[in-house]
Design a protein that fits this description.
Blueprint (H helix, E strand, L loop, with lengths): L7 H15 L6 H8 L3 H4 L6 H24 L4 H18 L1 H7 L5 H5 L3 H13 L7 H21 L10 H17 L5
Helix pairs in contact: 1-4, 1-6, 4-5, 4-6, 4-8, 5-6, 5-8, 5-9, 5-10, 8-9, 9-10
């Protein structure tokens, strides 16, 4: 019988909070059971194992991030939309480092196809429509933006820029300016 008050959703949210506290890689069903002061077996009626728990956290993170991005992009185009999307990823990573890491978790193909990851791609392509890129350049640009956003955020969060000037916000702004210029002047094949 399931313990009163425990649900898959509650465990997923608690797992996401745990990821923000200790790091996504350290989230396990055992650690979550300790947080709820229950036996591990009590959780298995709600989640299959640590892989299932991590998948659920990843799906939650993708959904939260997509909702933030949709709100930020409403009514924006061009560089304003590009900066809004980039800032959503950076701010989410700062606010929820474990969840941000979870959003990078490799999902099974069917889970990925049904996830909010599809919305992320659609929103990025919507931003790129303001730059009039046709395929396959649009796909190349989606990959470029994802690489720059995630790479910068990962290096910044890891302390990679903390020992030198200028301020990371200044660099971030210059990167967004450079991306905007590149997208407006995309090189021909």
């Amino acid at each position: 019988m399931a313990r009163a008050g425990l649900t898959a959703e509650r465990l997923t949210r608690a797992g996401a909070d745990l990821a923000d506290e200790v790091g996504f890689e350290r989230v396990t069903v055992s650690e979550l059971a300790r947080r709820f002061d229950v036996k591990v077996a009590s959780l298995y009626s709600h989640v299959k194992n640590s892989q299932d728990l991590k998948t659920r956290i990843a799906l939650l993170a993708l959904e939260e991030l997509a909702d933030r991005a949709a709100d930020a992009l409403a009514g924006r185009a061009g560089k304003d939309a590009l900066a809004a999307l980039a800032d959503v990823y950076r701010d989410y990573a700062r606010d929820h480092p474990g969840r941000y890491a979870a959003a990078q978790f490799r999902l099974a193909p069917e889970a990925a196809a049904a996830s909010a990851g599809v919305r992320h791609a659609q929103m990025t392509r919507a931003v790129l429509r303001g730059y009039d890129l046709a395929e396959p350049d649009q796909t190349h640009a989606v990959r470029l933006l994802g690489s720059v956003f995630h790479g910068y955020v990962s290096l910044e969060m890891g302390g990679g820029f903390s020992h030198s000037a200028p301020d990371t916000q200044e660099t971030w702004s210059r990167i967004l300016d450079a991306l905007d210029a590149l997208l407006r002047n995309w090189p021909a094949p």
